[in-house]
Design goal:
heterotetramer; A alpha+beta (728); B alpha/beta (234); C alpha+beta (81); A: 728 residues; alpha+beta; seven-stranded mixed beta sheet; 25 helices; C: Mth169, Chain: A; 2 helices; 35% helix; elongated; binds adenosine-5'-diphosphate; binds magnesium ion
């Protein structure tokens, strides 16, 4: 191997490695690494790839259930959904790149998560996106919203996968650090899942897709550093997405997967060729020998360092069965994609690369993966917030409702989802706008329900309760359409874990999530961690975004939030204590972010949810909405607006009653004649239930108050986001 | 009745239209031939469908590169012999780029991709594509496009009107209660949503009839377009 | 040899992008901006060394693919150093 | 005065459009075409008569709106006849 100059402390620091980490590298190598090797260690040991701060805690999450085929550790989680089919899904962040270049950052985020899913053999059938932006007043917000939404759409629309739901939040805590979390759900035959463990000494390692350029070199390390004023200079590392090539890659890979040629397959995501090779080799307990010259290159004069660390998009690495190269190549030729045998599997246990036959890096695989640092970072638990005193309503309930519905938090997201093709593939049964999206399992009469959720302000106030609430809300959204919740993926977005209070938020949220997942039989099968989301030492709100899926055994038997008939009774399921701490009401109308988060009682959550799901499955109700941000009155208004049928409501004359955010609650509607029976069944099941109104007319009325027309409510609700975006 | 769907690189509604057509024909999906864009020959068929999607990523101009695909020579030849050709969304863009239909499709006037249900009025029901509808009937059908703004020079437009070449126009629907929607989703000239060639053997439209062919998915107002074709061409 | 092709919309053809740019420039406070038109710039690396042959070949590319002559005009610039 | 702004992707930035055009030119039988890059051409009518002032103003427009300087370069050409 060529001798190179000594690695300097500055180079070590530039690669984001600590002195101790460098010492470990020296002992793993038994000599000084060269620059390419240092680069390889740095990306493999970056927070993004090694999960060094989070691994310890991630292990505490429940990941098993009889229906889980593959939990965390592979490219995505795999769940058995019956009839020989499996759902494969995962969520991932693309936060930093999206702040720097919102369109391309978001677009490549979607591209990356799609690859994680189809690399396992699934055809992607639905995308979701969970977005968090700074305050609407912040100078950058509008530009970021517009770019991110266009980028998510630009990529997903072009590849022809419907984007069926998501979330949008605004909060000043994200001013300098937005969150773009994308989720993909795919469908595969349960006995045709593809994994990444390489095997077969001598087998060809094949590179397919786009050529390698100098894109995103250091992307993985950038994703794990805080922002500061020099961030602007890092811009040229931005990757540009090519959804057209991705579409071809999906088709070509699925075509290849239908043949009997693949031993192992892995997409090239963060840390590109390095990470994919090392993971495939490590999982298979083998070595990889790569010919750098054979890697298809877009630019002249790329160094091995650049080739190995490039994050060019739309590329995959495959280990083929012996003798199948020509068959595979023909498929990629047909789709006009690059195809190259770039190396082979070895029994050396080493990861080696050659340029013109000369070895340019040589690293033992096992320690490269297993000696990677793991930190049990110190953490402190924040003090529980003081309880909230009595709250004086600043205005009457109807004007309060109107203000909430036409504000940044609760206004309609139509402006967003209409820029996403949500009907392509012709299987979208419930579009964005409901609690969970429903996508038909193609060619069958069953469906998948999909939802994403997280309430970061709860997580800040009380990480433990917030983590549990995020899981519970996803479960509730899936339940509200009548589906049986199966499993979740997560995207854990936090600040700098080296600060004990941030680490405390992380630990608290994980504990809460774990508890909820256990109590609800809702295991975590895949996920992603994004740390260092801070600017100038100011961290984002702790945001453990949760994406969940559930199964609907009969497509027709589902519920929707829109009121369907006049004369229905509206029944509130679950106990209402009037919890206003950390509520949207308190925050938006009184400017106070105070008090404890709502209590999450998982036993009650499960009992109430199972009861509601039973009613839907039994055909007793077809109209249901879960209660979340904004509480009871907001949920009731959403049902009325969606169905274009009015509501007359009665209840306590108390802001907490109408706007409190107590958990484990649903609103259901059904013809009056069935109401008594449902109330009786609830009583028998120990589930609190009470009639709070009935449907009809064109207005929303609170007992004894002035009615408001649905048209007027809808006007403000629909107008806020488009008006905001227009008045830039 | 034999129907063929052309698959371009980046087509993404090919399966959707295959399923809907097969349903209209009353067969399984393999009742519909899927033809690869690179094929230089295509068996004689009764109906050629150019599906929606982002062929070639919509790069350069949407439809431009596909219109120059090898198979398009065959499509043009069969179209000249009177074989029915239906272009949906990206298929419509390809047909204008290939010169089988007049005009061009420009970026939506608000520059944003739009996916939602729109209403269209049937302007000419005297064609194999539309004979199952009444003239003046309003359909509710989804659109999903970025480049749907139909444009044609004024004198050519006048000629098209005279020849009854306007197939559909965007209009308001009485069940349209969603806020902030204009009837015309993309700024198309004369609210045009779909056009015929002079002989009414070629139709291009931006809305997706195949996404409105199944009550569970997006309504059924588009189904009659496919079934009327099937019965007219049987 | 390098070729640069400028493609612009014909007069009378609507240009939604140009119009939006004009509007936004106005909103950003730029004054005195009249019509704005957005076109394309395509740069090609050609093996061909002979200018006349190169021009002919690029013209053919424009007619066949690069421009939609129903709505667009094009001009070709060759750069032979 | 008229201004023409040429916007092209920075070196090394992937150009999916250019790539697809290059591929299609090849499919169409054009030989000897190397790299293809697609950029934008923006033409502006300006009230400003002074070339220096016009250039300054167009530069500001590029920085603020016309170019995405994260991935694009621009050049300005003024035409004052
Ligand atoms: N970024 C987005 N993309 C697509 N759909 C979205 C997005 N943000 C919100 N939505 C949709 O808007 C609706 C309301 O969202 P949200 O208030 O978060 O629902 P919930 O309170 O039931 O979780 C949901 O159907 C959701 O899928
Ligand atoms: Mg909900």
């Amino acid at each position: 191997m060529s001798t190179e100059a000594n690695i300097t402390p500055a180079q070590i620091a530039e690669h984001g490695l600590t002195d101790e980490e460098y010492q470990t590298i020296l002992s793993v190598m038994g000599r000084q690494p060269n620059l390419t090797e240092l680069g390889i260690f740095s990306v493999m040991w970056s927070e993004h790839c090694s999960y060094k701060s989070s691994k310890f805690w991630l292990k505490t999450l429940p990941t098993e259930a009889p229906w889980v085929i593959c939990g965390p550790g592979e490219n995505a989680g795999v769940v058995d959904i019956g009839e020989g089919k499996a759902a494969i899904f995962k969520m991932e962040s693309h936060n930093h790149p999206s702040f720097i270049e919102p369109y391309q950052g978001a677009a490549t985020g979607v591209g990356g998560i799609l690859r994680d899913v189809f690399t396992m053999g699934a055809r992607p059938i639905a995308n979701m996106n969970a977005l968090r932006f700074g305050a609407p007043e912040d100078a950058k917000t509008r530009h970021l919203v517009s770019g991110v939404v266009a980028g998510v759409g630009g990529y997903g629309n072009c590849v022809g996968v419907p984007t069926v739901g998501g979330e949008v939040n605004f909060d000043p805590a994200y001013n300098g650090n937005i969150l773009v979390n994308a989720m993909t759900v795919g469908l595969a035959d349960a006995d045709r899942i593809f994994y990444s463990a390489a095997a077969g000494i001598g087998n060809s390692v094949v590179y397919v897709g786009s050529k390698t350029g100098r894109d995103g070199i250091h992307g993985a390390t950038m994703a794990s550093t805080e922002f500061d004023d020099t961030t602007e200079e890092k811009r040229p590392t931005v990757q540009v997405g090519d959804p057209f090539t991705e579409k071809l890659l999906i088709e070509a890979c699925l075509e290849l997967m239908a043949t009997d040629t693949i031993v192992a397959i892995q997409d090239m995501g963060a840390a590109g060729l390095t990470c994919s090779s090392v993971e495939m080799a490590d999982k298979g307990g083998v070595g990889f020998d790569l010919d750098i010259d054979k890697v298809p290159q877009r630019e002249l004069g790329m160094t091995p360092y650049e080739v190995m660390l490039s994050e060019s998009q739309e590329r995959m690495l495959i280990v083929l069965r012996p003798g199948t190269e020509a068959q595979a190549e023909a498929i990629f030729d047909k789709w006009q994609l690059d195809f190259a045998v770039v190396g082979h599997v070895t029994d050396t246990g080493r990861f080696t690369g050659r340029l013109d036959g000369e070895v340019v890096f040589d690293i033992p695989v096992r320690p490269l993966v297993e000696e990677s640092p793991e930190y049990e970072r110190p953490w402190t638990q924040a003090e529980a917030p003081a309880s909230l005193g009595p709250v004086t309503a600043p205005m009457a309930h109807i004007p309060a409702l109107q203000a909430l519905l036409s504000g940044p938090d609760l206004s309609s997201r139509r402006w967003v989802w209409e820029q996403y093709d949500h009907t392509v593939m012709a299987d979208t049964v419930r579009k964005p706008g409901g609690d969970a999206a429903i996508v038909r399992i193609h060619g069958s009469n069953r469906g998948l329900a999909i939802a994403t959720d997280c309430t970061p302000r709860y997580c800040r106030a009380e990480p433990h309760a917030g983590g549990a609430q995020a899981v519970a809300e996803v479960w509730r959204n899936i339940t509200a359409v009548g589906a049986r919740p199966l499993a979740v993926t997560d995207c854990l977005n936090f600040g700098n874990p080296e600060r004990p209070e941030i680490m405390g938020e992380f630990v608290g949220c994980i504990k809460g999530m774990g508890e909820a997942c256990r109590a609800l039989d809702f295991p975590v099968v895949s996920g992603n961690v994004s740390l260092y989301n801070e600017t100038h030492g100011k961290a984002i709100l702790p945001t453990p975004a949760i994406g969940g899926i559930g199964i609907l055994d009969e497509l027709e038997t589902h519920a929707d939030l829109a009121l369907r008939r006049e004369g229905d009774s509206l029944i509130l399921i679950g106990a209402t204590e009037g919890h206003l701490g950390q509520s949207i009401y308190l925050r938006q109308l009184l400017g106070r972010s105070e008090g404890p988060a709502p209590k999450v009682d998982l036993t009650v959550e499960r009992r109430n949810g199972d009861f509601v799901r039973g009613l839907i499955a039994g055909g007793q109700i077809d109209t249901c909405h879960d209660l979340s941000d904004g509480g009871l009155l907001v949920a009731a208004a959403e049902m009325a607006m969606a169905g274009d049928i009015g509501l007359a409501l009665m209840g306590d004359d108390d802001a907490g009653f109408w706007f409190g955010e107590d958990q484990a609650r649903y609103l259901i509607a059904l013809p009056k004649t069935g109401a008594d029976s449902v109330l009786q069944q609830a009583k028998d099941a120990g589930v609190p239930a009470r009639v709070i109104g009935s449907s009809g007319g064109e207005t929303l009325t609170l007992e004894g108050g002035t009615p408001i027309s649905l048209t007027e409510l809808r006007r403000g609700h629909e107008a806020w986001l488009p008006d905001y975006m227009q008045n830039g | 009745m034999k129907a063929s769907v052309i698959v371009f690189p980046g087509s993404n509604c090919d399966r959707d239209v295959q399923v809907a057509l097969a349903d209209a024909i009353g067969g399984t999906p393999d009742a519909v031939d899927m033809v690869w864009h690179g094929d230089r020959e295509m068996a004689k068929t009764d109906l050629i469908v150019l599906p929606g999607g982002f062929s070639y990523g919509d790069y350069l101009r949407s439809g431009a590169m596909s219109a120059r695909s090898p198979v398009m020579r065959e499509v043009i030849a069969q179209a000249e012999q009177g074989v029915a050709v239906l272009g949906i969304c990206n298929g419509f863009q390809i047909l204008t780029e290939a010169g089988l239909l007049p005009g061009a499709l420009l970026r939506n006037s608000d520059l944003k991709f739009v996916c939602r249900d729109v209403h269209i009025r049937v302007e000419n029901s005297q064609t194999p594509f539309t004979n199952a509808y009444e003239a003046g009937q309003t359909l509710r059908i989804p659109v999903a496009h970025h480049d749907g703004q139909y444009f044609v020079e004024a004198d050519e437009l006048a000629g098209m009107r005279d020849q009854d070449q306007i197939a559909f126009r965007y209009c308001t629907g009485d069940d349209d209660r969603e806020a902030n929607h204009t009837a015309n989703p993309n700024g198309s000239i004369d609210d045009i949503a779909g056009v015929f060639n002079k002989r009414k053997t070629v139709l291009g439209l931006m809305p997706h009839p195949e996404r409105a062919a199944d009550a569970t998915h997006g309504g059924t107002d588009g189904r009659a377009m496919l079934s009327s074709l099937v019965s007219a061409l049987a | 040899m390098k070729a640069r092709v400028h493609i612009s919309l014909k007069n009378g053809v609507l240009d939604p992008q140009g119009k939006a740019i004009g509007l936004t420039l106005g909103n950003l406070g730029f004054e005195g901006v009249g019509e704005v038109r957005q076109g394309k710039l395509i740069e090609l690396d050609l093996d061909e060394a002979d200018a006349a042959a190169a021009r002919k070949s690029v013209e053919a590319m424009c007619e066949k693919l690069l421009a939609n002559t129903v709505i667009e005009n094009y001009t070709i610039e060759l750069d032979d150093n």
